[in-house]
Amino acid sequence: MSSSASSASSPTSMESGRAAESNHAPGPILLLGAPGVGKGTQAKELVKVWGIPQISTGDLLRANVAQGTPLGKVAQEIMGRGELVPDSLVNEMVAIRLLQPDTARGYILDGFPRTLGQADWLDGRLAAQIESLPVVAVSIQVNYNQLLRRITGRRNCPVCQTIYNVYMNPPKRDGFCDIEGAALVQRTDDTEEVFKERMRAYEALTAPVVEHYRALGRFAEVDGDRPIPAIAAGIVAAVERLRHLG
Ligand code: AMP
Questions:
Q1: The pLDDT of residue 246
Q2: Where does AMP bind (predicted)?
């Protein structure tokens, strides 16, 4: 599997197929970083490269909210305030998702773990699975002002999930998806006020998780203030390199 920029930026279906068939399993990959660094966007690029699933705890929680499940009812208010959903609930949700057979060759955890409690739970779970590869963690870095623009400008297509930004990557027709023509929506937690709370939660609870994985070794930092394909290429190269550590 090549780690060149081209395979990361625009993998053809043949390249994706090759990656999916490769004996070299990517294993569990953690994408870490503050709100708005592009974890979700990059996870989708990596899915194309490796053919392993993206597991976004934010997306799973929003699906629970939309379906009105008991978890969704608890999570809705907490998410609306920009705070973190309790570890026990999120861990259980992730445990259930990891039972799916599509995770056998690896998976991309996007937005998890976000606390040291979640990291301890995940590390313990992986240590108990002798066949599991060790985790590789990649932290994406973007400065605060850039994050604020990314978050407050973000709009999503409710049909195909394409992400736009009214400042940096606007749709051709203001307010509507280029692909589906659907009216774009803004996440209720993508306001400046809630962003500030999410950043506070990140600094207090998630920054120590980054340090935890940095200390464990299989860890890389990438500059997230570049074009999407360049960042993806950097992540692929880092994961390939870290996977070959002894
Ligand atoms: P995200 O889509 O990753 O920005 O997550 C949106 C919101 O979902 C966060 O602000 C939290 O309220 C909640 N959330 C997502 N992932 C987690 C997690 N691992 N632990 C606790 N809360 C989470």
A1: 52
A2: 57, 62, 83-85, 111-114, 118, 187, 198
In a domain? residue 184:
no
Residue 215: per-residue pLDDT: 97
Tell me if 109 CB under 6 Å of ligand 1. Answer: no
Residue 56 lies in a domain: yes
* Residue matched to tokens 């081209």: 6
Taking 70 as the pLDDT cut, the residues of the chain under it are: 1-23, 245-246
What is residue 10's predicted lDDT score, i.e. its pLDDT?
41
Question: In which residue are the tokens 């709100």 written?
Answer: 35
Whether 105 is a known active-site residue: answer no
Residue 87: CATH number of its domain? 3.40.50.300
Assess whether 48 carries a catalytic annotation: no
Q: Name the domain count of the chain.
A: 1
Q: Give the per-residue pLDDT at 17.
A: 42
- For residues 33 and 143, what is the distance between their CA atoms, to the nearest angstrom? 11
pLDDT of residue 22: 46
- Tokens for 82, please give them: 């920009």
Is residue 41 a contact partner of residue 150, using CB atoms and an 8 Å limit?
A: no
Among 56, 60, 85, name the best residue to mutate to test ligand 1's pocket (greatest count of ligand atoms within 8 A of Cβ).
Answer: 85
What is the extent of the structural domain holding 74?
Answer: 5-143+206-243
114 is catalytic: yes
